[in-house]
Structures are given as structure tokens and as C-alpha cells.
Amino acid sequence: MVFFVRTAAEGDVEQIRALLAATFHASYDPFYGPEKVTQLIGSWHSPAAIRARIVRKDGEFLLADDGRELGGLGYAAMYPKMEKTVMLHQLYVRPSCQGDGIGRDIFAELETCFPYAEVMRTEVALQNLRAISFYERLGFSEVDRMEEWGGPNSGLPAVVLEKSLRSL
Q1: Strand partners, 73
Q2: N or C: which end of the chain has fewer CB within 10 A?
Q3: Can you tell me the distance from the alpha carbon of 125 to that of 131, in angstroms, rounded to the nearest whole number?
Q4: Where is the N-acetyltransferase domain (predicted)?
């Protein structure tokens, strides 16, 4: 299959939700269990939350689309707490498409969407060694750790990774 990276539109919300549900369960069930993951999906990926990301003025929501299904998605936005920093909030690839370069292609496009940013930052669940390794291959390195990934009282520890964008 050939996937093309394109900007998400409001008409993509249900496909995005389905992709996020599949990737979240595949990625996080082993660490947090299916019940906790279903709860996270419900609270973090409501249609309203997805629509808000799609229309955000200082953000970019990209999809890998082959015309039949979405193979992956990426969402990043300027980080208001840190000047010239982009926060990579989401980069997920459908489990059946992982290893095909879709995540790398989405990330490569996201890197170019913020010409005034100097740093890209992301947070990864501490147990998700596969994702941490992926980001390290993209040039990210650990800068911090946190106890509450995704929001207050989550109880989900994470590693904070950063990559310099100055060389682009």
C-alpha cells in the first residue's frame, strides 16, 4: 500500500477515533490493561477533542491515507509554556502498518510545519520502549521524566524527549 501524508479535516474525525482506539489498545494494553486504555481513549479522544486539534491555528494534524484507510496520524502544536517549542502530542501508526515507514514520513512532514520553532518535545509512556527507541532514531533525547503523563492524577509515568529543529 502507498500512503500519502495529508492534512486532517473535520470529516476525518470518526476514522481518526478508530485509528486511535486500535493503536492505543495495541500500544498500552500490555502496560495499563484494556479497561484503563478504554477510559483514556474516551477521555482523550472524544470527537470534540479531535475537532479542536484539527482546527487549532498553531497546530498541524496530519494523516497517512491510502484512499481506503488511515495508516497513521501525527499532531503537533506550538507549546505555549515554552517559547519556540513545538509539542508533538500524537504520532501513532496502525499496528498492521508499523515498520513500513509511515511514522517516519508523518514525522518528517511535521518537522517542517513549524519554521520558527527551535525544539520539538514529546512525552512517551515510560514502559513504551519501542516508541522511545523510535524517537531516539529520529534524533530525540531524554530531557526529563514525569509522573503524570497525559494529565493530572493519571498515575502514568513518562519520559520527556526533545529534538533540536535548528538544523532544518
Answers
A1: 63, 92
A2: C
A3: 8
A4: 3-166
Residues in the chain: 168
Q: What is the DSSP string of the chain?
A: ---EEEE--GGGHHHHHHHHHHHHHHHHHHHH-HHHHHHHHHHHS-HHHHHHHHH-TTEEEEEEE-SSSEEEEEEEEE-TTSTTEEEEEEEEE-GGGTTSSHHHHHHHHHHHS-TT--EEEEEEETT-HHHHHHHHHTT-EEEEEES-TTSTT----EEEEEEE-TT-
- Tell me the domain boundaries of the chain: 4-164
Whole-angstrom distance, CA of residue 90 vs CA of residue 123: 9
pLDDT by residue, tens only, the chain of 168 residues: 799 999 999 999 999 999 999 999 998 898 888 998 898 888 889 999 999 999 999 999 999 999 999 999 999 999 888 889 999 999 999 999 999 999 999 999 999 999 999 999 999 988 889 999 999 999 999 999 988 766 666 677 889 999 999 864
